[in-house]
Amino acid sequence: MIKVVILHNQIENHSIDELDVLAQQDLVMKACINLGYETTTMTIGDDLKNDLIRVKSSAPDIVFNLTEATWGYGELIYMAPAVLNAFKISYTGVPLDALFITTNKVLAKELMLREGLPTAPFFKINETSLLDPLKKYIVKPIWEEASVGIKEDLIFTPSETEKMMKIQSLSDSHFFIEEFIDGREINISMLAGSDGPEILPPAEIIFSDYFKDKPKIVGYKAKWDEDSEEYKQTNRKFGTLEDDPTIKASLNEICMKCWKVFNLHGYIRIDVRLDNGGDPYILEINGNPCISPDSGFMAAADRACYSRETVVERILKDAN
User: Fold this and answer.
1) Residue 122: half-sphere exposure toward Cβ, Cα within 13 Å
2) One domain, residues 196 and 294
3) Which structural domain range is residue 147 located in?
4) 173 with 239, same domain?
5) Are residues 294 and 213 in the same domain?
6) Are 210 and 185 a contacting pair, CB within 8 Å?
7) How far is it, in rounded angstroms, from Cα 181 to Cα 273?
8) Structure pTM?
9) Cα–Cα distance, 43 to 41 (Å, whole number)
10) Rama region for 97: left / alpha / beta (φ>0; ψ in -120 to 50; rest)
11) pLDDT tens digit string along 5-38?
């Protein structure tokens, strides 16, 4: 019998986005049991070395890697797969090198540009003198995922003196500036398969009239705070690209190229913005995105009529 260890990070801060890993663990656990695998759950916490030695000692055939942080820091997401890689233990999801690059948004964007993949222009914090005064920009954290650190008050134009002073005081090591693409937002999930990666039905984020006079962004509140207006007024919708095969084909080509260029495995989600002319810009590539039952990835899998067991099995079969 195949032995699977489901590995996730110890809960440190009890924030909404952090607790979500427990819902993912439950989903994977149920699916693995239904598939007939011997399944256990283990966590990594303060004692990373000994926690992972315990994983190694349990002699798993595969580790289903759900770690999203180390010691509460999302930017250290690659630590567990780095050690698993060193221990030569098979693990699921995006491999170590790809996870490091896709987690660092600036590194990812530099690789996109090198490979001819479309992404919005970006700048270091100390390059504000290069900004076009007629354009709008957004400050983003370099390392954080899951919309952590994405806030409306970090969207600005160079003429906003007070905001510019605040932005110029930020650290180049933790933040960068990206041109704000004020258009449609499309989330595209991809799942590994026996014939290569499969693009699941794309979902569009629909911003209600609540955003008529506000920047259209999926910030932290819109993603996690169910009581906020931002959450209630952003909704996922499938099928919106069916009447535009040219854009759909272009996005499919971009996603397949991303999978190859970034050496992706298992399951990912690519977030794209379309400008007013329909031209796509990759916002980010999410390696090992959330797979809780109410996540965007699982919604796309549901739309494709894939069971939880099918999704989990395909991820396991594409393990590193």
Assistant:
1) 26
2) yes
3) 122-179
4) no
5) yes
6) no
7) 7
8) 0.88
9) 7
10) alpha
11) 999 988 877 777 777 889 999 999 999 999 999 9
State the total domains in the chain.
3
Short-list 140, 11, 24, CA closest to 72: 11
Which residue type is seen at 245?
Answer: P
Considering the domain architecture, whether residues 231 and 253 belong to the same structural domain is answered as yes
- Same structural domain, 208 and 233: yes
Residue 5: strand pairing partners: 40, 63
How many other C-beta atoms can be found within 10 angstroms of the C-beta atom of residue 194? 8
Structure token digits, residue 58: 């349990």
158 and 190, same domain (yes or no): no
Residues 210 and 255 in one domain: yes
Residue-wise pLDDT tens digits, 143-159: 866 555 556 678 889 98
Q: What is the DSSP letter of 264?
A: -
CATH code, 112: 3.30.470.20
Q: Which CA distances in Å does 255 have to 57, 100, 214?
A: 38, 19, 29
Question: H or E segment at 56?
Answer: helix 48-57
Q: How far apart are CA 131 and CA 155, in angstroms?
A: 13
Strand partners, 279: none
